[in-house]
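thought: fold this chain, then report.
action: predict
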Amino acid sequence: MTRMTTRWALAVLVCFVAAWPLSGAGTTARPEDVGLSSERLQQVNALVKRHLDAKSFAGAVTLVARNGRIAHLQAHGFADLDAKQPMKTDSMFRIMSMTKPVVGVAILMMMEEGKVRLNDPVSKFIPELKGLQVAVSQPAQGPPPPPGTQAEPRYYTVPADHEITVRELLTHTSGLVSGTNSNSANRKVAIKGTESLSEYLPRLASTPLEFQPGTRWAYSAQAGFDVLLHIVEIASGQPADVFLKQRIFDPLGMKDTFFYPVENPRLASRYDRQQDGTLRRNSSTPNFLNGRYFSGGGGLASTAEDYFQFAQMLLNGGELNGKRLLSPRGVEMMASVIAPDTLPGRPAGEAYGLSVRVVNNPSARNTFLSQGSFGWSGAYGTHFWIDPKEKVIGILMTQTPNQEIRGDFENAVAFSVMGAALPVGTH
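observation:
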């Protein structure tokens, strides 16, 4: 080979490598390359260390990305405290209610295919849930219950003034298993053994709504989004696990996201914080994680990097690496103010969209996130948000309930933003 031929071949090789497509939502970057401060991002590590020292949790994974590139990915503490197994960046977590935005996307996909409408009554898909009643509380009577016990709530029922809708389930304004009366009634028809969504959900017909639909916001921790995921099954003609894998996880490259139970040595252990300040391992499994019941309210396990793929798709307006799941308008509606912060039950400055919280007034929320930031959290300590203005994604994964760290983590990331954001899709 001549010297000129060799130079030509090397030049072609360099151009080929330079043009090789990097994963748009997996590329790493120095913080300064995406307008973040390395020094200020160290505050995230310091914040987590304070919580580890205080035994708030055993371990955590934190991820911060901007402009589609991961600028901070750090494992902290232990995945298993008892075995002294270090946390790793690819550790898996039960994400619980961070399942809900995934279900929200699935429902929006069905809407974009014309199979579901926001104002559809739920009974269109699950006829048993037609004609639901609403519980009206009555004063307690008789002597107080013995210490350590709780009296059964007293209520009578009246008809709901309209059928609960898909929109009301997505925004937690349906009243379905959303408070004292409805939770009490729901315990009497709880999931049994290895029942599936289709076997259990019709029994919700005997559970009264907590309030007249649409009149307030109250969290439906499980039932509301379980119903939504079953609607996805009915509308798509596919089981929930198959639909989510084929239509969301595989296209986004989410190779480590599954319905629990997950037999994987990378799954971080759960711990509960005790009154004496120690951590105790919790090996119990809720009855809705039985292998056949695909809970839309909290059934998934995932990793920080996997969930980042999902979040980046939303930040990109519904597309990632050439795979489009939603239209830009669909994502815009998801992150819009649907249930305002003036609705009873919502905190000041934090409205609710279609399956996600939406920061509509940062000052009232006492947050440094931009207006329009959206995301959600999980009961075992997971948390994420997307800041469309700054093109920032933040993800915190732990396995111990801890609400205190969420706002501090958000603010630490917000304080690290130094430069202007680039348009979506650019690096």
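thought: worth noting. The first strand starts at residue 59 and ends at 66.
final: tokens above.
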